[in-house]
Each structure stands twice: as structure tokens, then as C-alpha cells.
Amino acid sequence: MTDKDARRRYSSQVVDGLEKAAARAMLHAVGFSDEDFTKPQVGIASTWSNLTPCNMHIDTLADAAAMGAAEAGGKPVTFNTITVSDGISMGSPGMRYSLVSREVIADSIETVVGAQGFDGFVAIGGCDKNMPGCAMAIARLDRPAVFVYGGTIQPGKDRRDVISVFEAVGKRAAGKLSDIELKEIEATAIPGPGSCGGMYTANTMASAIEALGLSLPNSSAQDAISEHKRQDSYAAGAAVLKLLDLGIRPSDILCREAFENAITVTIALEGSTNAVLHLLAIAHAAGIPLELDDFARIGKRVPVLADMRPAGQYAMSELIAIGGIQPLMKTLLDEGLLHGDCLTVTGRTLAENLADVAPYPPEQKIIRPLSDPIKKDSHLVILRGNLAPEGAVAKITGHEGLTFTGTAKCFHGEEAALAAILDGSVGKGDVVVVRYEGPRGGPGMREMLSPTSAINGRGLSSDVALITDGRFSGGSHGFVIGHVTPEAFDGGPIALLEDGDRITVDAEACTISVDVDDAELARRRGAWQRPKPYTERGILAKYAKLVSSASQGAVTDLDL
Prior knowledge:
Elements: H1 3-6, H2 12-15, H3 21-29, E1 41-46, H4 58-71, E2 75-80, H5 86-89, H6 96-116, E3 120-125, H7 130-141, E4 145-149, H8 162-173, H9 179-188, H10 201-212, H11 227-246, H12 250-253, H13 256-268, H14 274-286, H15 292-299, H16 316-321, H17 326-334, H18 350-354, E5 380-385, E6 388-395, E7 403-412, H19 414-422, E8 430-435, H20 449-457, E9 465-468, E10 479-482, E11 502-506, E12 511-514, H21 518-527, H22 538-546
Parallel strand pairs: 1-2, 1-3, 3-4, 7-8, 8-9, 9-10
Antiparallel strand pairs: 5-6, 6-10, 7-11, 11-12
Helix pairs in contact: 4-11, 6-7, 7-10, 7-14, 8-9, 8-20, 10-13, 10-14, 13-14, 13-15, 19-20
């Protein structure tokens, strides 16, 4: 087999030889020439959709990636996968499908690339679950591939974003805004294409995937509508052909050290708690052992440096204007906090990619120096205790304080909790417990952005904590603890809580506990009955049957 033939390891099985005449006939109909059958085929997995600003422009990026692959000597073939909008479905029953969509995206890309025999592919994602879904497919397929982030949105009027709208709802409920003022915020917060503008889940995961080595340098820090983003997409198409020539596959890139790099960058950027869930899932797809304790271990030595929304002040577009995440990564590398010898999709190591990166402008305020961090260790705190014996994930930035003790107010599901917050039933000193929202019990582990935003909008973020077996949007902030495992549907201790129980969260000791003795918990367990499943048919039922716990990444192929 010649080097040229080696690049066609998969497509040759589909289109070469007398017996493949029917396949070639089908492909002639979609635009293949005779010459195209001799080229490596490059799939372009597009998440384009007109249902969300995050993805509405990705068709143009897919076109650019296809052009890059074609001009580098490949035959591009574009196909679509799904997306759902977290921002639109948030707070509704539809949000149950959000985390499920991560699996659908990974499954569908794997299905098309595997069935069609593409030799490599580009995957382009915009909304939150696109990024991990694409990365999981890249890891599973282990064919030369590059991930392209669709890019961030521009701020709205007065630097607003989607979180401004969620929090305005809480302010309206508290009488701090009029209907007219709320409507004006609603109408001006989202100015056009791109993913939500803070260090929320989309920007967090794009940054983490770049740190993993699966994206070209700076792909995570580009405006959605920009020549830089178009060029990034074009270059990704060409890069797949280079990876084919070099024989570099994702398994050459996705080592344990690469995941440690991704965790480090996520912490430095004060990224979303969803990064814990998604990096565990990507690592599982890659066959790399990764556990909650790895986040805790790395978190002890990595500081929070980025003053980014939601807890901080700045938007992703403002970080882009001073150089993106590359200067931050160079700083972390120089301090020995990153593994520089990890291979990337450029064909070079991380250290080689960062060698000529210039530092941030001296007057910038977005990224703090290592000598003056926002927090000396990680904001992603892994908690354990009699309330979460298998772990929970807290987002403790330091703004909220490091400990909280309060009285439980328990709710079966998000809607009941939100109603109580908005009507004033939740007050200072309360711990809002939102249960039966886990991967199986929800199902789908809905994000609690509406309740946390309502708490913040009512001015209670310093006085109220919220714990859940669900999860949080990257836009959530305050004293919030999610991913509580075992989840309530599996009879975890969170299911046994009662109104008035005293709950303590200690981010320094990394504990979460309820002041109820073992005998009383055992008595309550004996009386507990699992509620009926949300549904017994369709994709949500199938997901609930297959999904693992949040502490294992909420994957659907763990025990297969």
C-alpha cells in the first residue's frame, strides 16, 4: 500500500473495485467525478440549524471547511447532525433532551462517518452539547479529525447577554423592574449569531477541547461572524489532509496528560461545572481513565485567573480582543502547569504551538497574573459526605464565601422550586433542594439556570444555597452544588431529605453533609418509594435505562 493509498484506508473499501460500481453510481448523482474516487474523503459534520443563534451561521463555516479540504486534495462531503438550544428550552420540560442531545450528536457523527467510510472529518459545533458530542465522536472513531468551534456572540446593548434576561425575570418578580424594562432587556440581549458570550458551557468546552489538542490554535477564541473564524474553518479542512499524511489519529493526541491540560485551562478560565461531566465523557470515549478525584487533585495547584462572566465582569468577545486563550496557555506552560509535549492536530506539540505566542497587553484586566489570582485554587470543588457519598460538584468562585449552613426546602423538580423562589417562599438561610433531576430521574439532568438566576435576581445569591442531582448552566453563579450522586431516583441521600434538615457545605473541607444521624436516614430509606419514571417510551426512556451516574460522565455505553 502506497502512502497515498494509506490516506484512503476507509473510503477505498466503499468505492474501489468492480463490485463497488453501485456505490459509485450513487455518488456520481451527488456530484462525485471519476477523479474524486481517488481522493481521501473528508466528512464535514455540521451542526447548522436555524433554531438557535449559536448555530445559525455554521453552514457558512462548513462551506469554508469543505473548501479547505478540497484545495488540500481531499473530497469533502458535508452532512448534518442535530442541535438543541439550552437557552430556549431552559426551565421547560424540553430541557430534558439537552444532555441527551450530546449522545445523539456523538452517535450520529459516528454513524455517518463509519457508514460512509470517510477517511477523516471536521466537526463544527456551536451550542453547549455540540462540543462534547463532537469530541466524543472524534475519540470513538479514531480517524484523523479536527474540531471547529462556531465562535462567540457579540454582547447586546449595555453588554447584555442571555443571562441578563434570566436574571431580569427574578428582578421583575422582586419588583425591581417594570414589564417595559424587562421587555427592553429581552429585545436587546441577543444581537446575532454565536454562542452565549460569557465563560459559560460553550466557551468553556471550546477552550477545553483546544487544550486537549483537537482544535487548531485559537479556534476557541474567535467571534462567530469574523474572517478569523472563516479562516479557522478553512484551515481545519486542510489540516485533516495533513493529519492523514502524517498518520496522526485522535488516539495519538488524547492521552491522560492532554485531559489534565484541559482541566487546567478550564480552572484558570473559571469555566462551567459542565466541563467535569463532559471531560469525563470524552475521556471514556477515548479509553482514558479519568475520575472526579483528578479534578480535585489538579485543582489544588491551579489558580483561577480569568475575571469572566458569570461570576466575573468580562465577556468572551473582550477576551478575544486581547488575544484569546493562547497567552493564558503560554503562561500556564511556562509555570509548569501544562504538559507541553502533548501532540495536537497541527502535527506539532502544544509547546511548539505556543512558542511564539505574545503576552497579553500590560493594561488588560481580564486575565490576572499568577501572583494575584482571583482564587488560589480551583473554583470546581468536588464534595463528598453523607449527602453525596459518590460525589458532587460545586462552583465556588470565592465571591459566595467558602461555607454555607442552612435549612433545607425540598422540591420535586425544577418547576416547583422556581415557583417558590419567584413567589418569595424562599428566603435567607434556605438551602433549596431540587431533586429527581438526575440523569435517570429527570431524565436528562436538566440545568437549573432559571432557579439560580431567579435567586440572583431577587438579591439572594449570598444568602441562599441550591443543591441538586441535576446540573447547572455555565451561566449559573452563587452558592450552587450539582451532580449530587447517587441521585434521588436511585435512592441517594438527597431523596431522603426533609424540610427543615440542617445542611452544611464546606468548600475548604470539600464536604457536603446533612445533620441527620445514620439511624434516622435508615428509617427514612425504609419508607422511601421511587417515583414513576417520567416516561416509559421513546428516547428519554431509553436514555434513562442506559445512562450512567453523573460522577461517571452520564454516558450511555458504560456497561455495554
